[in-house]
Design goal:
The complex is a heterodimer of chains A (251) and B (283).
Chain A: E1 3-14, E2 17-28, E3 32-36, H1 43-51, E4 58-63, E5 66-67, H2 73-78, E6 81-83, H3 96-103, H4 112-116, H5 120-139, H6 155-168, E7 173-177, H7 185-200, E8 204-209, E9 220-225, E10 228-233, H8 235-239, H9 242-249
Chain B: H1 2-22, H2 29-45, H3 51-73, H4 78-98, H5 100-103, E1 116-117, E2 120-121, H6 125-147, H7 150-160, H8 162-167, H9 172-198, H10 208-221, H11 226-243, H12 250-264, H13 268-282
The chains are: A alpha/beta (251), B mainly alpha (283).
């Protein structure tokens, strides 16, 4: 099976510091893939390169058979590659439902002029956005807080809003950056259930985390350490890998 | 006074929506206000064209200039962008002064004909009043439509969290340029109306002071609300005039009022009004 995402020999350094050295890995279509590593391993850099916020010094990012290395963030988003952020990036002054409506942007097309004059298409589109956002509120259990400004919510709920907003856009590959940080144990369990449900719906998930509990949901895990992938395989396997143990527990 | 309130509301709204909905601080509105005013003045007095041509020339020229300048400078953000727009306002002021073949320099252009509508000349302030307020209302209506539609959501998303908006597929740079152009067109419309109302334009009306004046309208009114802009514009237009009654130190009084307004009404008049209405609704 062809990989949905293929990272090929990606290298990146900042002022002479090699953060990533020739990293390669694949994410097959369907299912959940984990990318773990201790702090400073280069996870965020790799993630930014995949999502288009950074460019690689060398190497390519292939998505759905196309080289997307030079594509912008919105272009990648239109292709179905969507990410979330380590600190949740909700739109704080917008209510929960408005956040989700903004998430429908890609599936709407009216231009500024049509919007200004409130054309029929423009109004129909807003109704559709609202309906989709409403459905997502139900699905993610956000209905009771739908009219609250997202910025006033506790961290765990902001994460959920961000996830729901990403899902409303119907992604093909959903990249989650440390989705469990700031969540309590109960919320992590809820998140894991939600991720498995999304994967069952056909969304491929790339999960970046240093939380060993959360990555249980991943079928394959890549371990990144000092800019190199040092191990890959199911959790049970990598757990006993001596290099992984060393990286996590120290020599 | 109320006519000026409407005139400034139209141009001020352009600044307010850039500030409140897109997170762009623009000090360049005086330039587009000036372009509109001089276009109307030149087209009607120099070429003797009918008034609507001046409006169109001004709006098209403003749009082209806003696009050409906005494309590079809107890659900047925050203070850097604000400074770039300030520089634009200063350049505008100098050009309005130096290009006297077009603008009349310090002498300005006088004798701009009054507007007439279906053969009905708007020569008294009252008549102009009944014309300019519907125009302002129309502009507000367009603005309200935009806010509630797809691109309105994208604008607010971009203002709150630009990176997240990009992930949703919003090309933030293109959207900013579009909005800057729209804002410039509004500024030009306000300027053309101004020229026909006062019949005389000179560089004094399009200085950096004027640019700050428009930004004040946006900040005082509360950039996030639509009504706020009108209130803000009423404040900066009516208040200094009213305060002249208190003697020579009226600019000082106005400054004090400004500080008080900014301190006690952080969301501007519009925000305060919105809160009051909400309280009323709950009671």
């Amino acid at each position: 099976m062809a990989a949905l995402l293929e990272v090929r020999d990606v290298a990146r350094s900042f002022r002479g510091l090699h953060v990533l050295r020739e990293v390669s890995f694949e994410v097959p279509e369907g299912g959940i893939v984990g990318l773990i590593g201790p702090n400073g391993a280069g996870k965020s850099t790799l993630f930014n390169i995949v999502s288009g916020f950074l460019s690689a010094d060398r190497g390519r990012v292939i998505y759905a058979g196309t080289d997307i290395s030079d594509r912008s963030v919105p272009q990648r988003s239109y292709a179905g590659l969507v990410r979330t952020f380590q600190t949740p990036q909700v739109f704080p002054h917008l209510t929960v439902i408005e956040n989700l409506m903004a998430g429908c942007y890609k599936h709407t097309t009216t231009g500024v002029v049509a919007n200004l004059f409130g054309s029929r298409a423009s109004r129909a589109e807003v109704r559709r956005m609202r309906a989709e956002a409403d459905a997502a509120c139900d699905k993610f259990g956000l209905t009771t807080i739908r009219d609250r400004p997202a910025g006033k919510l506790p961290g765990g709920q902001q994460r959920l809003v961000e996830l729901a907003r990403a899902v409303v856009g119907k992604p093909r590959l959903l990249c989650l950056d440390e989705p469990s940080s700031g969540l309590n144990t109960g919320e992590v369990a809820g998140l894991m259930a939600a991720l498995e449900r999304l994967a069952a719906e056909g969304i491929t998930i790339l999960l970046v985390s240093h939380d060993m509990d959360l990555v249980k949901v991943a079928s394959v895990i890549h371990v990144l350490c000092f800019g190199e992938i040092i191990a890959r395989g199911p959790l049970g396997e990598i757990r006993h890998d001596p290099r992984v143990r060393e990286a996590y527990l120290g020599a | 006074m109320l006519v000026f309130t409407a005139l400034y509301s139209i141009a001020g709204l352009g600044v307010a929506f850039l500030l409140g909905q897109c997170g762009i601080v623009s000090l360049a509105q005086s330039v587009f206000f000036g372009i509109g005013a001089y276009s109307s003045a030149y087209c009607t007095t120099h070429w003797g064209w009918i008034a609507p041509t001046g409006f169109v020339v001004g709006i098209v020229a403003s749009a082209v200039i806003a696009f050409a300048v906005g494309w590079p400078i809107l890659r900047l953000s925050g203070y850097f962008l604000a400074l770039a727009t300030l520089a634009l306002a200063m350049i505008g002021q100098v050009l309005f002064l130096e290009w006297d073949w077009l603008t009349g320099g310090t002498l300005g252009i006088g004798g701009i004909p009054k507007l007439s509508l279906f053969g009905f000349e708007l020569r008294t302030p009252q008549r102009f009043y009944y014309f300019v307020w519907p125009v302002a209302a129309l502009v507000l209506w367009l603005y309200a439509n935009l806010l509630g539609a797809r691109n309105g959501f994208a604008m607010r998303a971009m203002r709150d969290a630009p990176a997240a908006a990009a992930v949703l597929g919003v090309d933030t740079h293109v959207l900013k340029v579009k909005m800057f152009v729209a804002s410039a067109m509004l500024g030009s419309l306000g300027g053309s109306l101004f020229a026909h109302y006062v019949s005389f334009v000179s560089v004094d009306s399009f200085t950096v002071d004027r640019a700050i004046h428009f930004l004040l309208i946006a900040v005082l009114g509360g950039a996030k609300t639509i009504v706020g802009t009108v209130l803000g514009s009423a404040f900066v237009t009516v208040m200094p005039h009213w305060l002249t009654g208190f003697g020579d130190f009226h600019p000082l009084l106005f400054a004090a009022c400004l500080i008080a307004a900014v301190m006690f009404l952080p969301d501007g008049f519009g925000g305060a009004l919105q809160r009051a209405l909400r309280r009323q609704g709950q009671a």
